[in-house]
Task: inverse folding
């Protein structure tokens, strides 16, 4: 009986020690029983200026908005512009050859499933100050642009 009362309290989201709502640092003040609201995204950078890569194997970041571009098993909106056969018309940068190679190194005549979900690797940018400082230095060829110590 006593155990049930304790469980009842815990499930109700009440901190037994303080009597207040249960919260944890990662969730902020949102009680355990409520759903956290993710911060709203602002306006992604949409200036169409291709950004320099910090190291040669970096997936280039996306210089345009991608809101509501469908990417699922039925359709890939990115490929509508970026597929190699579409770029004459779309003027987009064609996906590189690497995107046509499967995991055993075979070159395919269609995009590899490894590279189908573009947003796994390519991301839009927001005009906001970085949350965490970063002194990463890229390839020596790019070192000139790295911040001085
Ligand atoms: C309507 C056509 C169109 C669609 C759809 C589109 N793009 Fe683009 N994308 C472009 C064009 C054109 C550029 C060249 C820069 C510019 O004009 O924005 C570009 C640039 C890029 C670049 C920069 C490449 C580099 O080397 O700097 C990336 C990465 C990219 N797009 C990824 C994507 C992804 C991922 C999607 C789907 C979520 C997508 N694009 C959908 C037209 C498109
Ligand atoms: C597994 C990670 C990954 C996925 C998924 C992926 N890419 Fe890439 N992409 C990269 C990397 C890494 C590079 C740079 C090196 C290279 O070209 O392979 C790149 C390069 C590019 C470039 C620049 C090509 C150039 O010649 O400058 C474009 C455009 C691009 N990707 C578009 C796409 C689109 C569109 C999709 C989805 C259909 C996609 N990528 C999926 C990792 C990925």
Result:
């Amino acid at each position: 009986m006593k155990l049930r009362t304790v469980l009842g309290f815990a499930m109700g989201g009440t901190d037994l020690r303080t009597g207040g709502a249960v919260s944890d640092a990662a969730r902020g003040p949102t009680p355990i029983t409520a759903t956290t609201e993710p911060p709203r995204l602002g306006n992604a950078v949409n200036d169409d200026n291709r950004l320099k890569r910090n190291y040669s194997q970096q997936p280039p970041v996306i210089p345009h908005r991608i809101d509501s571009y469908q990417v699922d098993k039925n359709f890939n909106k990115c490929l509508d512009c970026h597929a190699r056969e579409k770029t004459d018309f779309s003027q987009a940068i064609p996906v590189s050859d690497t995107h046509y190679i499967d995991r055993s190194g075979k070159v395919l005549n269609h995009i590899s499933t490894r590279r189908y979900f573009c947003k796994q690797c390519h991301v839009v940018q927001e005009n906001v100050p970085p949350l965490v400082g970063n002194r990463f230095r890229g390839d020596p060829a790019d070192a000139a642009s790295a911040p001085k110590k």
Observations:
- The first helix runs from residue 2 to 11.
- The mean pLDDT is 81.
